[in-house]
Specification:
Blueprint: H1 5-8, H2 18-22, H3 26-51, E1 54-60, H4 61-65, E2 78-87, H5 99-115, E3 121-124, E4 132-137, E5 141-151, E6 156-160, E7 166-168, H6 171-204, H7 213-225, H8 235-252, E8 257-258, E9 261-265, H9 271-293, H10 297-308, H11 320-332, E10 342-348, E11 351-356, E12 359-363, E13 367-372, E14 383-389, H12 393-397, E15 402-407, E16 410-414, E17 419-429, E18 432-444
Parallel strand pairs: 2-5, 12-18
Antiparallel strand pairs: 1-2, 3-4, 4-5, 5-6, 6-7, 8-9, 10-11, 10-13, 13-16, 14-15, 14-17, 17-18
Helix pairs in contact: 3-5, 6-7, 6-8, 8-9, 9-10
Length: 474
């Protein structure tokens, strides 16, 4: 087990670990569940009337697999996949509706759902590619709705596409493969490994160059079966081993065959993007090797953050295991160390708050400046970098758990969310961490009172008591 294993997954400090930070909050999970259940009820009833077919629905994708991650930034949305199944006996072409008919039914039904002010749907998008329609919701997520033909007697499914063709696609079969492959004992860890790689991909790839969720899920599931699991313990070691397996596999072939349909290659990336995936996995493997070789949790976390940015946590100040590791490191090596001292100033209007190595409580809406007070003592060539790590319900609801700020002796941000947040500063020399500090930023939801509130008028200037109307507030 690597020294940073507890920063990936922990049962004792559940909120200060990567697994917790990349997952949706309980409130977000419950909100999604309520919305997709309501939409499924609407679609089953409405599509039955439109098509004169019996309609079934089935949740699929990452929500079904238990591998959903929160959006990497506030501008993105959670994704849910809800399949709807038009049922008739026989082959898809034996029915009275073609693929485009089914997709039109779904698009029209979603438009009617969004037009109803009694639900929280915000808008319906244009059909997504050739396969899905999409409804956006006010809580920062969308539901993609692919349409299928289902022959219940044969337990056979076919996906309706915009090209008016039926595509051999069976989400139920690949989910059955996932459950059988991972098993009850290993499935929780496999889910976490998929979530780690999905968040890594969300941070490192743009748009269509990003490997799909199902591609990463299959890659992890198959790679996990190749491991001698007795050789590894913590999630950090398992992630390194999985990444090594993926690098070896993709060097041999970029193909990612659907385990439930060997005729389908799940990797729809261009050749250039497939090559980029391999290159970035090689980079991730290098990060893992360096992080596992680090002597302290703090140093290891700083290296892992090269892959996971602000989603990767750092040790708490009262981490006793880390304190022991740092003492051992100081005795073993005569390395250069630097203790950063950070001056913090928060300003709102004419009010100014000051702090050293922390700030707060301060109100929302402050402009905050963080400055390295002892920058003059830095060794030549040292690099100072800053990272925001947010926490609390307001930041979670906005899917804004932080970001890289940049490099330099001073940086500025604002107080946007109520909660206990951190600005983390790291000092590196020749790529090695020589100093770091967590700067707590405590933000309240209260506005600042006016500094000099108006005084009551002199008694002589007040209205006589008997002239005040009875209903006038005093």
């Amino acid at each position: 087990m690597g020294i940073a294993a507890s920063l990936f997954y922990s049962t004792s400090d559940t909120e200060n670990c990567l697994d917790w930070r990349v997952r949706p909050s309980d409130e977000q999970y419950d909100a999604q569940k309520e919305r997709w259940n309501d939409l499924a009820d609407h679609l089953r009833d409405d599509l039955a009337q439109r098509s004169d077919c019996s309609i079934a629905s089935w949740l699929q994708g990452s929500y079904k697999f238990g591998t959903q991650v929160r959006p990497a930034g506030p501008e993105e949305e959670f994704d849910i996949d809800l399949g709807v199944y038009f049922q008739w006996s026989g082959e898809p072409d034996d029915g009275k509706h073609g693929p485009v008919d089914l997709k039109t039914f779904v698009q029209d039904s979603l438009s009617e759902y969004v037009a109803n002010d009694d639900n929280d749907a915000a808008s319906v998008g244009e059909p997504r590619g050739a396969k899905c329609s999409r409804a956006h919701f006010e809580d920062g997520f969308h539901i993609d709705v692919p349409a299928y033909h289902l022959d219940g007697e044969r337990d056979a499914r076919a996906l309706a596409t915009e090209e008016n063709e039926w595509e051999d696609s069976d989400p139920k079969a690949i989910y059955a493969w996932w459950k059988q492959t991972t098993g009850d004992t290993d499935r929780p860890r496999c889910r976490r490994l998929v979530r780690y790689l999905k968040m890594w991909a969300a941070l490192r790839f743009e748009g269509k160059s990003r490997p799909s969720s199902i591609t990463l899920t299959v890659l992890v599931g198959e790679a996990f079966q190749e491991l001698d699991r007795d050789d590894y313990s913590g999630d950090d070691e398992f992630l390194r081993a999985i990444t090594s397996e993926l690098v070896a596999r993709l060097r041999n072939s970029y193909a990612v065959t659907n385990p439930a349909n060997r005729n389908e290659d799940l990797s729809r990336l261009s050749d250039e993007d497939k090559s980029s995936l391999l290159t970035k996995l090689e980079d991730l493997l290098s990060i893992a090797d360096r992080a596992l070789a680090a002597r302290t949790k703090t140093a290891s976390a700083e290296i892992w953050s090269e892959a996971f940015d602000h989603f990767f946590p750092v040790p708490e100040d009262d981490d006793q295991e880390e304190a022991v590791l740092k003492i051992a490191e100081s005795r073993a090596l005569a390395t250069l160390k630097f203790n950063p001292v950070v001056s913090v100033q928060a300003r709102t209007g004419s009010r100014v708050f000051h702090g050293t190595d922390r700030i707060g409580p301060i109100p929302k809406g402050c402009d905050i400046t963080f400055s390295l007070a002892n920058y003059h003592a830095l060794p030549a060539g040292a690099v100072v970098s800053w990272m925001v790590r947010n926490s609390g319900k307001e930041a979670e609801d906005k899917n804004d758990l932080g970001h890289r700020v940049g490099e330099g002796f001073s940086v500025a941000r604002d107080s946007a969310y109520r909660g206990d947040h951190h600005m983390d500063v790291a000092i590196k020399l020749n790529g090695l961490l020589i100093g770091s500090k967590r700067i707590p930023v405590i933000i309240t939801g209260l506005g600042m009172p006016r500094r000099n509130p108006p005084r009551a008028p002199p008694r002589a200037a007040r209205r006589p008591r008997d002239s005040r109307p009875r209903n006038e507030p005093r």
